[in-house]
């Protein structure tokens, strides 16, 4: 088989498996592969500075804005918050496509140099000139911080973290598209479990009396429990993947750089870094599903609470009048008690969903087994990859710009 090494390496990076690639080739195109992440950081820093500037005001100013413009102000803050999450990801993706489309080396280098210059010099200076950041914050310190962030970013790309995080972002977008499946298959049964808790006054009183720091400590504790559960479950799944083999003639690699009629080679033992990489891919994929489901549950209870609970009922449940609610500093036109209870139930629902995907056959077939099938395709490609370039000691040394962006 005549494989394209460059296309094969890029294919593994796109699937979040950079550790399959030989270590001497992982630095290929490192600067170009770092540029989309740098664009992401630029826009994230700029939008966050704008959001903090909008929210970092005295309480009486915030109350006046809520009183004068109310819903319009809240919608504006939510729109900017949405932009903070979405715009940097989209811009980074577009930059990656642009660099792939540029064939002239000088043009690519010019784009990369301009991006680096904007991050290191233009952005810190522009934030101070526009008032987003006060001049009391030293400019030289911001420049040094951005240089350090650039070095860390390139290091993460070099060791493969960038590929895994990029794959996780694409997986998150895919889960958003599949939100209908989550809502139709997983949400109805869960509501039967947690709906009665929503109308329990003791829960409202316990959660409402927690300080914000203590509430997030409880949420973090539940998240850690869920992460430990996921890690132990995936450890068992990894043991089964080690013995998995693909039948000759299977067409799972059709349309990939490994599409060929040559019989698939036998399974090679996974290296420790490869096992870790595959485990991280499965962990992130499952975690993205759980987070998407938790957000769906949170939104449901917020809307449901607004529709069914009058303010006096919320006061009765919570045992006292609840203050206006905020979430991550963003004011919302609902009570803090409703936000806190919805957040607690959403995290608890995420734990329930994680346990269901491991133990319930229907959940596993709908949400977890497709992830395993995707990993099996990657393992089949890995076997071909290693069989074709068995003598890794003779792998050529590549420069930073010798390869394309994944």
Question: Can you put this structure into words, describing what you see?
Answer:
With 406 residues, this protein is mostly helical. The protein has helices at residues 5-14, 30-55, 59-68, 70-101, 105-129, 139-159, 161-177, 179-198, 201-208, 212-242, 272-308, 311-318, 336-359, 361-388, and strands at 324-327, 330-335. It has a two-stranded antiparallel sheet. Helix 2 (30-55) runs parallel beside helix 5. Mean pLDDT is 77; it is low at 391-406.
Tell me the span between the first and last alpha carbons. 22 Å
Count of runs of 4 or more consecutive helical residues: 14
Q: Which runs of at least 5 residues are low in confidence (pLDDT < 50)?
A: 391-406
Q: What is the overall silhouette? A: flat
Largest sheet: 2 strands, antiparallel
Structural class: mainly alpha
Overall pLDDT: 77
SSE order, one letter for each helix or strand: HHHHHHHHHHHHEEHH
Report helical residue fraction: over 70%
How many beta strands in the DSSP annotation? 2
CA radius of gyration: 25 Å
Strand residue percentage:
under 5%
Read across the widest sheet, the strand sequence of neighbours is: 1-2
């Amino acid at each position: 088989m005549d494989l394209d090494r460059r296309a094969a390496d890029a294919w593994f990076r796109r699937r979040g498996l950079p550790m399959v690639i030989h270590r001497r080739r992982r630095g290929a195109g490192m600067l170009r592969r770092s540029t989309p992440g740098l664009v992401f950081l630029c826009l994230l820093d700029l939008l966050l500075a704008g959001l903090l500037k909008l929210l970092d005001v005295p309480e009486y100013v915030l109350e006046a804005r809520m009183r004068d413009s109310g819903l319009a102000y809240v919608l504006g803050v939510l729109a900017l918050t949405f932009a903070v999450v979405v715009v940097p990801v989209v811009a980074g993706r577009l930059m990656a496509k642009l660099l792939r489309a540029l064939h002239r080396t000088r043009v690519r280098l010019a784009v990369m140099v301009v991006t680096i210059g904007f991050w290191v010099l233009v952005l810190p200076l522009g934030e101070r000139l526009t008032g987003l950041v006060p001049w009391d914050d030293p400019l030289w310190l911001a420049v040094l911080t951005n240089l350090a962030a650039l070095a860390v970013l390139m290091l993460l790309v070099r060791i493969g973290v960038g590929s895994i995080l990029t794959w996780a972002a694409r997986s998150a977008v895919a889960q958003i598209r599949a939100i209908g499946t989550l809502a139709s298959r997983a949400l109805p049964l869960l509501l039967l479990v947690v709906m009665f808790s929503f109308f329990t006054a003791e829960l409202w009183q316990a959660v409402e009396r927690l300080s914000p720091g203590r509430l997030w400590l409880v949420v973090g504790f539940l998240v850690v429990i869920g992460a430990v559960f996921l890690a132990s479950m995936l450890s068992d799944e990894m043991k089964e993947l080690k013995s998995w083999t693909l039948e000759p003639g299977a067409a799972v690699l059709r349309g990939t750089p490994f599409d060929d009629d040559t019989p698939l080679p036998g399974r090679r033992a996974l290296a420790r870094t490869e096992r870790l990489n595959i485990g991280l891919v499965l962990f992130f994929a499952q975690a993205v599903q759980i987070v998407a489901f938790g957000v769906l549950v949170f939104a449901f209870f917020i809307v449901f609470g607004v529709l069914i609970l009058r303010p006096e009922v919320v006061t009765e449940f919570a045992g006292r009048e609840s203050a206006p609610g905020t979430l991550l500093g963003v004011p919302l036109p609902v009570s803090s008690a409703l936000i806190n209870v919805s957040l607690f139930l959403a995290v608890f629902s995420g734990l329930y969903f994680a346990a269901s995907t491991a133990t319930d056959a229907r959940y596993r077939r709908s949400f977890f087994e497709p992830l395993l099938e995707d990993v099996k395709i990657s393992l089949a490609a890995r076997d071909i990859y290693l069989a074709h370039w068995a003598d890794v000691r003779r792998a050529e040394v590549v420069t930073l710009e010798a390869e394309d962006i994944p």
